[in-house]
């Protein structure tokens, strides 16, 4: 009989130890969740980026944290390791259960996380999307980093400035059916025709957002068009590949290059003079504005209706546009003077 | 020491499984240990984790673990025969993609479900054919088909996702029973549960499954159709995985090639935790259900307590290793307990 007892005791010991591990972890963290019983305004705002460990979202979260610290809310960031919609769903479910004040999410799929977000809203959680939107009926607000017109305009202005307002330019795009890029290219063509009649767009080539293809297409462009003065690449893969080609070629400093890129991938080319300036939105400002929009929703200052205005700290006042979209503003220009301030 | 030899003469029943009273045989089992642990974790979580004790937790928990519960049923049977099916998550992905592609092409959703289930059955039959007829080890076969089926899934749909499904079906997947918080999909699982419990524990087919796991040769000589049994199990596994794929697609409202990647490991972890021996011949369905729920509740509670997914994986992993180790430890304890007579006899015979 003694032996049987020892076996039961061993089982019990195992059970208790696992339970202790589980509760130990739980107890350690449960204190940090801000109470939802603390008054009417629950300023616990949780950011749910596409995935964690992504420098772009690290930057946006740092902006969000700065904003939330300013208005003394509680900042938290959770997210999956891989950017998949089903992983985001379980995080949204958890946040719903926790009863946070608002979820700020960058959607991995416009449709798939919809139901989970609507359940959260039914439970009284405000939902703000940023960077990547869901369907408009699944969220209260979308903080749009930049609109198509702004993106097209800034790139054309940059290249026009760099080549002196006249000459031949070309575009190195992503794939031939990339929705965003095609919309931007259409707008660029219109804007070029109306504001810069002396600039001719000689060719648009497609690097398929593949580093090697983009590299080869850049080389081909420069050989086919010996008078080419500038290249616009409205894709982060394309601009980096083009910069890599230009920086080691005879065209360095003679053919201007601009487009959409991130500071980390283009830092060395800005420093060696291949690129004078390029554009992108500032993710830190995006996170900052998202946090203030969430605060305004939680406090009931706005409902997400068109025409609502709210205060966004250092960024000033913003107005909600059609479909509950708030536009961050014009894209941000990165150049040799400010690139050292960014790490994403 | 010499007197110990006398113990061999005592008239106790030596057949190990029947030398204890019934209540002990029912309660002092590995399965009940997991059930007990499940209860403890659930109670502790409700008390200490804020937000865990609310009804919506149950809803989300059931929605989350349903695919694992479904696939764990045939997986239990397969693992009791000593085989394994690692391709299940890829079949989920393939089924999801087929649903997506057919819906996109305008086919009726019912047809898409049928095609997905048939594809799952074929996928399972391919596994079963390679294991039973060709005679390859299931570990190798299903690692191969894990890559193969996932490749087909991603190849069919690329990196895009289909997200437009009939609202009737997506609502059905998330519908709750009456006014309660229990999702209706639980009924689907309960029906299958009854089928599998009867199949495994109350039919000659089920006894054959245990016999195969204990000794394939002995089973064959006892009249068990070893190959046919395994083939049936692999087809079942593929079909149920495809069914889980249909559910998964509707639950998350998106058909993607990478849906449910890595799910096979969660299923196998739960099955092993639930007391099924990886060497076959041992295991019961109630233990497996408890295993799935234990991992599900633990993950749910830890997520609520803001523990990151990496840490949750670590804890699940430790739990799994601990359960396997404790199993060996208890077995060792049991042999040690029986040792006085045995070793003495061995010594005596060695001396003699």
UniProtKB/TrEMBL annotation, chain A:
<dbReference type="Pfam" id="PF13407">
    <property type="entry name" value="Peripla_BP_4"/>
</dbReference>
<dbReference type="InterPro" id="IPR050555">
    <property type="entry name" value="Bact_Solute-Bind_Prot2"/>
</dbReference>
<feature type="signal peptide">
    <location>
        <begin position="1"/>
        <end position="27"/>
    </location>
</feature>
<dbReference type="InterPro" id="IPR013459">
    <property type="entry name" value="RhaS"/>
</dbReference>
<dbReference type="InterPro" id="IPR028082">
    <property type="entry name" value="Peripla_BP_I"/>
</dbReference>
<feature type="domain" description="Periplasmic binding protein">
    <location>
        <begin position="45"/>
        <end position="300"/>
    </location>
</feature>
<keyword id="KW-0732">Signal</keyword>
<protein>
    <submittedName>
        <fullName>Rhamnose ABC transporter substrate-binding protein</fullName>
    </submittedName>
</protein>
<dbReference type="InterPro" id="IPR025997">
    <property type="entry name" value="SBP_2_dom"/>
</dbReference>
From TrEMBL, chain B:
<feature type="transmembrane region" description="Helical">
    <location>
        <begin position="262"/>
        <end position="280"/>
    </location>
</feature>
<protein>
    <recommendedName>
        <fullName>Autoinducer 2 import system permease protein LsrD</fullName>
    </recommendedName>
</protein>
<feature type="transmembrane region" description="Helical">
    <location>
        <begin position="86"/>
        <end position="105"/>
    </location>
</feature>
<feature type="transmembrane region" description="Helical">
    <location>
        <begin position="185"/>
        <end position="210"/>
    </location>
</feature>
<keyword id="KW-1003">Cell membrane</keyword>
<feature type="transmembrane region" description="Helical">
    <location>
        <begin position="231"/>
        <end position="250"/>
    </location>
</feature>
<dbReference type="Pfam" id="PF02653">
    <property type="entry name" value="BPD_transp_2"/>
</dbReference>
<dbReference type="InterPro" id="IPR001851">
    <property type="entry name" value="ABC_transp_permease"/>
</dbReference>
<feature type="transmembrane region" description="Helical">
    <location>
        <begin position="32"/>
        <end position="52"/>
    </location>
</feature>
<feature type="transmembrane region" description="Helical">
    <location>
        <begin position="311"/>
        <end position="333"/>
    </location>
</feature>
<feature type="transmembrane region" description="Helical">
    <location>
        <begin position="287"/>
        <end position="305"/>
    </location>
</feature>
<keyword id="KW-0812">Transmembrane</keyword>
<keyword id="KW-0472">Membrane</keyword>
<keyword id="KW-0997">Cell inner membrane</keyword>
<feature type="transmembrane region" description="Helical">
    <location>
        <begin position="111"/>
        <end position="135"/>
    </location>
</feature>
<feature type="transmembrane region" description="Helical">
    <location>
        <begin position="147"/>
        <end position="165"/>
    </location>
</feature>
<keyword id="KW-0813">Transport</keyword>
<keyword id="KW-1133">Transmembrane helix</keyword>
<feature type="transmembrane region" description="Helical">
    <location>
        <begin position="58"/>
        <end position="79"/>
    </location>
</feature>
